[in-house]
Specification:
Bound molecules: zinc ion
Distance between the termini: 6 Å
Number of strands: 5
Strand content: 25-35%
Radius of gyration: 14 Å
Order of helices and strands: EEEEHEHHH
Helix content: 25-40%
Structural class: alpha+beta
Shape: globular
Largest sheet: 5 strands, mixed
Number of domains: 1
Number of helices: 4
């Protein structure tokens, strides 16, 4: 699950809030981010599910807040692992996920 950024630094996995159509907040989206150059990339395993979720909202969605983890099994697993890591910094949750 380790990923290298185009700048050469290892990227970390975190959960981000993504705003869609400036109205819909999608919470708990797993994103790789680089602490060095701040570029980021949605976890490849879930990009298809995110696209489907956005498509289901249509082009003129009503303002709302959605938890992606509630709609996606993998995102829910990642959310739990990230929370666990906050309590136990020594847990290698990236290996656990693989
Ligand atoms: Zn980078």
């Amino acid at each position: 699950m380790h990923k290298q950024c185009q700048c050469g630094e290892p990227m970390g996995l975190e959960l981000r809030k993504v705003i869609y159509a400036s109205k819909v907040e999608i919470l708990h989206v797993p994103v790789f981010s680089c602490p060095s150059c701040f570029s980021s990339e949605v976890l490849q395993h879930v990009t298809k599910d995110i696209k489907e979720l956005l498509q289901s909202l249509g082009s003129k969605p009503a303002p709302r807040r959605i938890s992606f983890a509630r709609n996606n099994e993998l995102a829910e697993i990642i959310r739990k692992l990230v929370l666990e890591e906050a309590d136990n910094p020594n847990v290698d949750w990236q290996s656990a996920l693989e």
